[in-house]
Design brief:
It is a single chain. The chain is α/β, with parallel strands linked by helices. The strands form two sheets. Strands 4-5-6-7-8 form a five-stranded parallel β-sheet, sandwiched between helices. It has a three-stranded parallel β-sheet with strand order 1-2-3, with helices on both faces. The protein contains eight helices and eight strands. Helix 4 runs parallel beside helix 5 and helix 7 crosses helix 8. The structure holds zinc ion. The site of zinc ion (ZN) has 5 residues, from loops. Zinc ion binds next to loops.
Length: 255
């Protein structure tokens, strides 16, 4: 059985004490593919070290997270372009719009999101979207960039059924994580009505741990808990969920 964590920040400081142990624990459970979203330039070297440590299992993305879009975002976008000149990545991510804290830099977030979508298209790469309190704003950008060359993952999807179908209409798969195990999470109510071909699994570790670890540090080994929940919702075996969602991740990332 091969499970894929399509979104895990294993380079985070939260893993400094036991990173190798946490990764080996996941691999033992069959979670052997880790897709690593970028946040901003301060994390680039720790992402490269992680990749050097687990070259068979770690697949890096490059991008500027919307909450890291500040007044200096042009410099950050420049940093991304420079990384792409020296090597390849598996996606442009995580990118998008986050209005949870405030809307002061909405315009800058929209510009950075759009520019990074265009970068992904120029490299035939998927995008990995971060959307928080910003469905309308994210869909507005996707609408302006839609086409066969636009595809990717709507990470940590927590919207309603209508928003799920809309995301899928832009060639996005839904990244499903710990929230599906929350009683008040919402998505478990309708998820099984969405064909499983549109679903990929993710932890977003160290954030958003599934029940019964809710509130604690999340880790990639917990993909198994999310896969079990998906198996129950879709009335499938764990092995089938692993095979289908790993195939879905290969369709997106090309590996
Ligand atoms: Zn993330």
């Amino acid at each position: 059985m091969i499970l894929t964590d399509t979104h895990t920040h294993l380079y985070s400081k939260d893993f400094d004490a036991d990173r190798e142990e946490a990764i080996k624990k996941a691999i033992q459970k069959g979670i052997s593919r880790f897709f690593i979203p970028a946040i901003d330039s301060t994390h680039t070297s720790s992402m490269y070290s992680l990749e050097a440590q687990f070259p068979e299992n770690v697949f890096l993305m490059m991008g500027l997270h919307p909450t890291s879009v500040k007044e200096n975002f042009e410099e950050e976008l420049q940093h991304i372009e420079e990384q792409f000149k020296t090597r390849d990545f598996y996606a442009v991510g995580e990118i998008g719009i986050d209005l949870y804290w405030d809307k002061i830099l909405l315009k800058e977030q929209q510009i950075a999101f759009k520019r990074q979508i265009q970068l992904a298209k120029s490299k035939n790469l998927p995008i990995v979207i971060h959307c928080r309190d910003a469905f309308d704003e994210v869909f507005e950008v996707l609408e302006s960039e839609k086409g066969d060359d636009l595809f990717g993952i709507f990470h940590c999807f927590t919207g309603n059924k209508e928003q799920a179908l809309k995301a899928i209409s832009y060639n996005m798969k839904l990244g499903i994580g710990g929230v599906v195990t929350f009683k008040n999470g919402g998505i478990n109510k309708f998820l099984s009505e969405i064909p499983i071909e549109h679903i990929v699994l993710e932890t977003d570790s160290p954030y958003l741990a599934p029940v019964p670890y809710r509130g604690k540090r999340n880790e990639s080994a917990y993909i198994q808990i999310i896969a079990e929940k998906i198996a129950a919702l879709y009335e499938l075996d764990l092995e089938e969920v692993a095979a289908i969602t790993t195939k879905n991740s290969k369709d997106i990332f090309g590996v």
